[in-house]
Amino acid sequence: MTLLNAALQGIFLGAFYAVLACGLSIMFGVMRIINLAHGDIAVFGAYVMFVIVEHTGVSAFIAFAAALPVMVVLGYVLQLTVLERSLKSGILTPLLATFGLSIVIQNLLQLAFSPDVRSLGGSAGAVTTGSWQVTSGLSVSALGLVVLVVAVLVFGALQLFLSRTRMGWMMRATAEDADAAELVGIDSRGVYAWATAFAVAIAALGGLFLAIRSVFDPVSGPTQLIFAFEAVVIGGMGSLWGTLVGGIALGVAQTLGAQIHPQFAVMAGHLLFLVVLIARYGGGRDFLPRARRLLLARAGR
Amino acid sequence: MTLLKVEALDCRYGLLQAVRGVSFEVAAGETVAVIGANGAGKTTLLRAVAGAHRPHGGRVVFDGVDITTLPAHRRVALGIALVPEGRRLFPSLTVEENLRVAASPRRHGRWNMETVLEVFPLLRARRHTAAAKLSGGEQQAVAIGRALMSNPQLLLLDEVSLGLAPVVVEAVYRALAGILNEGATVLLVEQDLTRALGVAGRVVCMLEGRVVLEGPARALDRDRVVSAYFGLRRPA
What we know:
heterodimer; A: mainly alpha; ABC transporter involved in vitamin B12 uptake, BtuC; two-stranded antiparallel sheet; 12 helices; 2 strands; B: Rossmann fold; six-stranded mixed beta sheet
């Protein structure tokens, strides 16, 4: 029963990772940009909501609704000012640009908010504490359920958007062949800017969940980025539903790992990531023969 | 009335100069074929007209407007559509999505989903198939249909017969003949001389980035065209 409970909590945790990873997956899928500032953007979003809550005293969810337009505009402008230029100079430049952006965001947040740890858990209402005891060993937290439902809704809405709307087709067309997309009348710059705007907006949703379920400070971003990144890779780069599955797989691995030893939680997630990485990209097929050959050569000497 | 005017166009890829000082005009309703050997600069010329290649020098004037620096998607809105070499469909999009994504909300006219399917009836059964799963001929039909969806004033066709079986080429050209007969303005690149001379009213022959021969298709005799094509002897 404890294992089942751990797996269930892992699914809830994984849904949170999937929301964080969603924007990362969009930007990689559409523009082939690996956004190293994604975690910091999520944390930045959390601070925007924090400021709104501090000044108005509204609930964290209302603060999120208010922060959303800010984040959409931020993403749009970010693409047109920084990322578009960096994209023109090869695949490594966006990586460096977003790495720099990550440092800039962290330091600006330090400057404005000090390194103090914050949380929005107190302003999210009963959701943070509510739970249902299903059986003695199995409990469902309200927040976990909310995160899971929202995650499925976000991925479902995105799926519908990409497969049913003209804007969605334009985004897929641009992702597959930006040059040909221009030739059929699609403004690829605009599509890229919207893709980044969506990614940043969904990152803010990840920031909201982070701020409600635990605490954050100006340097929380990179840790979130690593989990989001692992979710994207486990699910298969650029695949939407894969990202949701990848996030959940990562969450379950972490909570099951914690059953072995509390300190093993994060490590278990990393191990799953490593195994997937080797199996899919590292030539899992020739990894073992190569290792054996190496050993034999050493023994022969 | 002149629809397209290309003036002293220069196109480069780094140090390589693909188009050197090319000038010509296309009148409304005319079909002009650009012919020439591999590497003569035909595709680059078409891409520069469509806006996919930023020229190094010269001007492209469309319908009296200088469009030399306009990005490709804005030219589509003005009425220029290119069927690119190699078709370049969006592989994961279905036939219908490929066509509808190209429908310009601001340009209305004869072409829509239904009329395109009338010209290429073979696509009707494949409407919901991903473009990646189509045969070469079907893909070419979608590529042409996709260009038509924006109701262009000027249709640019780049090697529509490339890599297709002769029977399929025949079918594609039969469909094109219908479009041409309706008075569309077409600038096409074609390696098959006979085909180019058969379909076009006027021919522009390029060699090493320059126009070496130009004239009405009917007035040009085949030997002259062939020697210009391969640069055997430069016409004075």
